[in-house]
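User: My collaborator sent over this chain with a note saying "see what the structure looks like." That's all I know about it. Can you take a look?
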Amino acid sequence: PFEQTGNQYMHKWVSFEHFFVRKVLLLKYSYAFIIVPGGFGTMDEFFKTITLVQTETITQFPIVLFGREYYQPLWDYMQFMAEQGTISPKDLDLVLLTDDYDEAMRHIATYIRSNYTVKPRKRLWWFFERR
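Assistant: Without extra context I'll predict from the sequence alone. Here is the result:
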């Protein structure tokens, strides 16, 4: 909670009193995740999302770990988990590890085109969206 600040690239910032509400909204309004270096909350959101995709609780959902140097130890451990049989080797295909913006966007676009019909959504007054 102490590291929680809006970044300079955001136009709107919403704070949540309860972490589970943040996770619900994060999934509900997303078509993809790009996970950048972060702390425990970032890891929690990453593993919660990949678990929901893995168990087919939510549809195929592109997940990108962006920052190869930062996430390489985590990726190595995930490969170790697959070798140990605690996750399926195909679970590694649910995540793209990259430093390349174009590769990340191609990965997301492929998932979006094959799994969703993208259409404008209704703006919601309680999310501070203008009509």
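A starting point for your reply to your collaborator: The chain is about 45% helix and 10% strand.
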